[in-house]
Amino acid sequence: MSGIRLRRGSAVLLVGVMTVMGCGSGERTALAPSDEQIAPAGTDGKIAVVSDRLGKPHIYTMNADGTGVKNVTPTGEWDDNPCWSPDGKKIAFDSYRTHARNNLYIMNADGSNVTLVNTPFAAWDPCWSPDGSKLAFRMVDPSDSEIFIVNTNGTGLTRFTNHPGWDGMPAWSPDGKRIAWVSDRSGNEEIYSTKIDRTGLRQLTNDPNGDQSPCWSPDSKKIAFCSTSGGQWRVWLMNADGTNRHAITPLSSAAWEPCWAPSGTALAFVSDHPGNKEIFKMLPGGGGRTRLTNKLGDDVKPCWGKSS
Fold first, then answer.
1. What's the pTM?
2. Radius of gyration over alpha carbons of the chain, in Å?
3. Coil, strand or helix: which one is 67?
């Protein structure tokens, strides 16, 4: 069956279109946008994406309107999961380059000064702390996938999760109080959050399908994520405590990997409608859908950073 690919680090997930049950009561679905008019908001900052338009995945940056596209890792080897620093001056990412395994790296926003963040095992999914001093990330240690935190210079490695099963896709709340992540500890992929001191565990979703890619709103009050609830990958929103879950993209086209604009006025996301995987943006209610990329190959993993 044909389907959508979502990556968990180096693993590729093939997700077909199927008939499934919804998440439960209290959810509502946004109506499909009537057209792709230009969104009146979400014009701030820059967006980093992963694209294989030249064959191998590289990291590109562009303006919030899709102009000014630049390949910032032209000599890289499978560069993935870009994440802007809070000040918009640097990008953390993971890559399978010259160290025989996947590693974390930090570079300047223009691609210069690429620096290895040393970890003892393969690492993926970097996410900055709000003060820019640390990275949360996924590491296999040595056979169990867990969330760890490390200083940006590679010191002070600490384990954040410790549970059998797969934990990944960490997202640090902008107010610095919690980290959200994805885990299959319950048997399928759900979104959880915990305080930075590892107390106050919350299971935010409880869905027989897949929930992935949590992204906090700039005010830390909401989380955007993607879910196959209803039989199709869609972008959803919920409150930070998991209440008021609702889809903001329609069942008529797949959508995943949401990321908030620094102003909170828009979301970037991936959709394969029409054609190959491209980057779009929309208003938080689901309207104002605007296509930002239009190239052969797939453009995925958007991360929206502030202007430096």
1. 0.88
2. 18
3. coil
113-120 CB contacts, 8 Å cutoff, 24+ apart: 114/73, 116/154, 117/92, 117/150, 117/152, 117/153, 117/154, 118/154, 119/148, 119/150, 119/154, 119/157, 120/157
266, 273 Cβ separation under 8 angstroms: no
Whole-number average pLDDT of the chain: 87
Distance CA 266, CA 217 (A): 10
> How does strand 90-96 pair with strand 79-84?
antiparallel
242/222 Cα distance (integer angstroms): 9
pLDDT reported for residue 143: 79
Superfamily (CATH H level) for 3-305: TolB, C-terminal domain (2.120.10.30)
> How far is CA 293 from its chain centroid?
17
So where are the chain's domains? Answer: 3-305
Identify whether the C-beta of residue 249 lies closer than 8 Å to the C-beta of residue 258: no
The structure tokens listed for 121 are 């095992």
| Alpha-carbon distances of 233 from 209, 255, 258, 266, rounded to whole Å | 10, 6, 11, 19
The string of DSSP letters for 189-232 reads: -EEEEEETTS-S-EE----SS-EEEEEE-TTSSEEEEEE-TTSS
